[in-house]
Amino acid sequence: MAQSFDVVVIGGGPGGYVAAIRAAQLGLKTACIDDWKTPDGKPALGGTCTNIGCIPSKALLQSSENFEQAGHGFADHGVRVKGLELDLAQMQKRKDQVVKASNDGVAYLFKKNKVAFFHGRGSFVKAGPEGCEIAVSGETLSARNVIIATGSSPRTLSGAAFDEKLILSNDGALAIPEVPKRLGVIGAGVIGLEMGSVWRRLGSELTILEALPVFLGAADEQIAREAWKIFTKQGLKIELGVKITGVKTRKDVTVEYTDAEDKAQSAIFDRLIVSIGRIANTEGLNAEAVGLKLERGFVAVDEQCRTSVAGVWAIGDVVRGPMLAHKAEEEGVAVAERIAGQHPHVDFNTIPWVIYTTPEIAWVGKTEQQLKAEGVAYRAGTFPFMANARARALGDTAGLVKFVADAKTDAILGVHIIGAFASELIAEAVVAMEFRASSEDIGMICHAHPSLSEAMKDAALAVDRRALNI
Length: 470
Known about the structure:
Blueprint: E1 3-10, H1 14-25, E2 30-34, H2 47-52, H3 54-73, H4 88-113, E3 116-119, E4 123-126, E5 132-136, E6 139-148, E7 152-154, E8 167-168, H5 170-173, E9 182-186, H6 190-201, E10 205-209, H7 221-234, E11 237-239, E12 243-249, E13 253-258, E14 264-269, E15 271-274, E16 278-280, E17 294-295, E18 298-299, E19 312-314, H8 325-339, E20 353-355, E21 360-365, H9 368-374, E22 378-384, H10 389-394, E23 400-406, E24 412-419, H11 422-434, H12 439-444, H13 454-462
Parallel strand pairs: 1-2, 1-6, 2-3, 6-19, 8-15, 9-10, 9-15, 10-11
Antiparallel strand pairs: 4-5, 5-6, 7-16, 12-13, 13-14, 17-18, 20-21, 21-24, 22-23, 23-24
């Protein structure tokens, strides 16, 4: 006899577990299926983000930044450190504790909200207007609505499969047992920059090989130029326009490639991180058998996340749009509310992007190059953290804030930040854009002094050439 639910969510990552919790809050009998487990075989809720992605990477980024500051930054503050040592095992232990706390937090929320949890991989038995049946670990669950939130996996490089010893995905990059002397990274995206930064701070000689001819092509060009200047000064060696021609492993890894001038090159690394994008997790869903349409490997959905099968929805990395945990969460909440008869909306134009390097990079809305390509008349204003009193007090003055606004209406079209706590500052821009604010609105709001947020005010004022502190 199948266990019956109103909603079954396949996948317990940020999109899936948030969708399940919201559905339960709305009075729907809800179950969530997830197959993540700890090394000793226990369920580990939270998906890629919690287990081998967002959460552990931020833990290591913070720990490695502390180590670098102790070795190179504290002296400027009059704090002298003698006999500095790296305890990598303790650093990894702390990371694991942070992950476990997050796993336990999701399990607690499921219990609090009465979400039933099934450990295993969910697969469709049948799906359609009459209802769906999902097989998981020898059991069958039935539901009127199913939400697919199975996430994504790292894309492999042809001829260089992940062994998580020499050739590493984000999973292996988080668990290197000793600091590699020579570390290679293929891909200068978010994962490549963040993981490369961790091990560079801990002592690795870092080389990043990027196929694209431009650096951080998704970011605003001015921000990308500033990032390039700062990162190369930190010691990141970044080569653009690279084409990988071969990868060979023995005791180390040899990467053969052609550079931007089409000249043959080779480099030897102790370990190689491959971060060249991610692919949607659809394997094992039994999608074809129930008529679930896929497009370019993703589950095909409409604007409301409905799939080709009645009663089946899909969210997060497994569908179109940016592969961001918070995007998946917003879609998960929206789908749960639609199932309950509500009418929510997710605006992709106000989803923030963040790269947790030092300095951090964050943005929301359109870049200057996008507006030029679209023929939109705009005005831009920038303000450097060098002129911000709080940044000077912190001893962290790298970077700037940039506003772009409509030339006629002054509506904020995009905000771009590179600097300390950019991940926190960008929230003000998201709120402003959601409420259709103008740059003048932000410039007229009182910001605490001294604070980094004052850079937001001054950059907004700079759109009208009215910045007060530069």
